[in-house]
Specification:
Strand order of the largest sheet: 1-11-10-7-3-4
Distance between the termini: 14 Å
Helix content: under 10%
Mean pLDDT: 86
Radius of gyration: 16 Å
Pfam family, one: TerD
Organism: Nocardia iowensis
Low-confidence stretches: none
Largest sheet: 6 strands, antiparallel
Order of helices and strands: EEEEEEEEEEEH
InterPro entries: Stress/Tellurium_Resist (IPR051324), TerD (IPR003325)
Protein name: TerD family protein
Shape: globular
Number of strands: 11
């Protein structure tokens, strides 16, 4: 599903956000509980089929300053979005043709084991949702390729992908993303 990123007046969007939310593990005060779940939002920037930059919990800003990770949640505490990556499409360098949004589980739980998890892409100005995935009860994978932004004739489009991958860290996802570049 391709969505051309335009507002209600047909003007191309300049700002989008990728957001991720989940609930912490419920711990039984008498018997302990499972280990904490640490999901991570990441954006990987490609020039054609070559990775050129990444934004995630260990690198909060892209080299050109167009993408920013607003902070790492290691537990999912709090309501709503726990991690957000902002994208200023007007500042992306011309070499960048694709921006992938992925979610990985740093602590290794599969999406079958995670409660109340979601990821979404929203218009960075109006807050309107462009795409949303419920991650709870997902498959036996530790990562998800949410979707990708692609540039064609200076117009950005969002392509929802929703494919599970085996990755606990963005570096483990790079080779798996190459099948989605084109």
């Amino acid at each position: 599903m391709f969505v051309t990123l335009r507002d209600d007046n047909g003007v191309g969007l300049d700002y989008v956000n990728m957001a991720l939310g989940w609930d912490p593990v419920r711990k039984n005060r008498w018997f302990g509980g499972g280990k904490d779940i640490d999901l991570n939002a990441a954006a990987l920037l490609f020039a054609d089929d070559n990775i050129v930059d990444v934004v995630y919990h260990e690198q909060l800003t892209s080299r050109d300053g167009s993408l920013r990770h607003l902070g790492d949640s290691t537990t999912g505490e709090g309501d709503g979005d726990n991690e957000i990556i902002t994208v200023d499409l007007t500042r992306l360098t011309p070499e960048v043709t694709t921006v992938f949004f992925i979610v990985t589980c740093y602590t290794g739980q599969t999406f079958e084991q995670i409660e109340n998890a979601f990821c979404r892409v929203v218009d960075g100005v109006s807050g309107a949702e462009i795409a949303r995935y419920d991650l709870t009860g997902g498959g036996s994978y530790t990562g998800l390729v949410m979707g990708k932004l692609t540039r064609s004739d200076n117009v950005w489009q969002f392509d929802a992908i929703g494919e599970g991958i085996r990755a606990q860290h963005p570096a483990e996802a790079v080779a798996q993303l190459k099948t989605f570049v084109r």
